[in-house]
UniProtKB/TrEMBL annotation:
Gene that this sequence comes from: ctaB
GO molecular-function terms, A-Z: protoheme IX farnesyltransferase activity
Name of the protein this chain belongs to: Protoheme IX farnesyltransferase
Residues spanning the membrane: 42-63, 84-108, 114-131, 138-157, 163-186, 207-227, 233-251, 263-286
Keywords recorded for this protein, A-Z: Cell membrane, Heme biosynthesis, Membrane, Transferase, Transmembrane, Transmembrane helix
Length: 287
């Protein structure tokens, strides 16, 4: 198999995206296990996370190959570009996913595996197959898969509890601004497809105000969690700076709305969640 082909089979896993899902799962574990963190579980969660989220992403690319061909952002993906056959992509998806589920059960146990399978099913089947072209509520239901990623890690160390749910809600509340900021910026692209997204069902001005506000609400919620659970001034200041940077784009969008500022908001979304998870892990271990 040539290097090009291997690269395309890796691209089917959406590596630019799933690394943060794996970090969410590892962070869930560290939040629950601190200060007694078992590196073996961190490695196992990383491998299970890569396999299961990568398998779900490959299934999404297989199932949505016709939609991907319609959007400028996605038409050069391996299947619409003709570099990987749909059949091979489906095989990769199923092999990765089943291996991920099996290793999760062997290494992590029943409850974490339930969250892995739940996350996979919510994203690959409920969101991708049933809702994406049927209702703008697709991300409100599919977004629970984001909770599942963090809860997979948490339940390796502790039973599910209110703290776990509140922490996982940082991801759930982060998703709408994360995806809808991209939808606003790529409105013409999305409008060519069957995909339903709330910003496409309302005036652009109202969509911009809604997403700008959701972005600020998501940032405030993450700061609230730090104050509630971590109470570390340095960590709070670091998150505050990151959240302020992200919220700056919301303020900019409110003053002078433009599609470009929503691209900047989208690109700022992952760093905010990354800082929240990373600093949260460090503070959990040292507190
Ligand atoms: C229903 C839930 C979600 C939807 C619909 C969604 C949608 C998207 C889309 C359309 C992209 C652009 C992909 C591309 O063009 O390659 C993206 C990028 C990304 N997503 Fe999400 N996402 C969701 C949940 C999540 C979650 C839960 C995480 C992590 C915890 C995440 C992490 C990322 C990252 C790291 C990127 C790359 C961002 C960048 O390029 O700067 N997403 N997402
Ligand atoms: C535990 C587990 C397996 C969880 C699954 C996690 C999860 C929430 C995955 C969503 C991340 C992702 C690849 C979104 C792309 O959305 P999209 O398909 O709308 O993006 P696209 O338009 O770029 O294809």
């Amino acid at each position: 198999m040539s290097n090009v082909a291997i690269k395309d089979y890796v691209l089917l896993m959406k590596p630019r995206v799933i690394w943060l899902l794996v970090l969410a799962a590892v962070a869930g574990y560290v939040f629950a296990a601190s200060p007694r963190v078992n590196i073996a579980y961190v490695v196992e969660l990383t491998l299970v996370g890569l396999l299961s989220t990568g398998g779900s992403a490959a299934f999404n690319m297989y199932y949505e190959r016709d939609i991907d061909a319609q959007m400028i952002r996605t038409r050069n993906r391996p299947i619409p570009a003709g570099r990987v056959s749909p059949g091979n992509a489906l095989i990769e998806s199923l092999v990765l996913s089943i291996l991920g589920f099996a290793l999760s059960y062997l290494w992590l146990g029943t409850i974490p595996t339930i969250f892995v399978v739940l996350g996979w099913f919510l994203y690959a089947i409920v969101y991708t197959v049933f809702l994406k072209c049927r209702s703008w509520s697709n991300i409100l239901i599919g977004g629970v898969a984001g909770n599942a990623a963090l809860l997979t890690g948490w339940t390796v160390a502790k039973p599910l509890d209110l703290e776990a749910i509140l922490l996982s809600m940082a991801i759930y509340l982060w998703i709408p601004a994360h995806i809808w900021s991209l939808v606003i910026r790529a409105k013409d692209d999305y409008s060519r497809t069957c995909i339903k997204m709330l910003p496409l069902e309302m005036s652009e001005d109202r969509a911009m105000i809604m997403v700008a506000l959701l972005n600020v609400i998501s940032n405030i919620y993450m700061l609230f969690l730090y104050i509630l659970f971590l109470r570390n001034l340095i960590g709070l200041i670091i998150l505050l700076i990151t959240a302020a940077w992200s919220s700056y784009y919301s303020v900019k969008a409110m003053i002078k709305p433009s599609r470009e500022v929503f691209w900047q908001m989208f690109k700022a979304s992952s760093p905010v969640l990354t800082v929240f998870l990373l600093i949260g892990m460090v503070l959990s271990i040292i507190k």
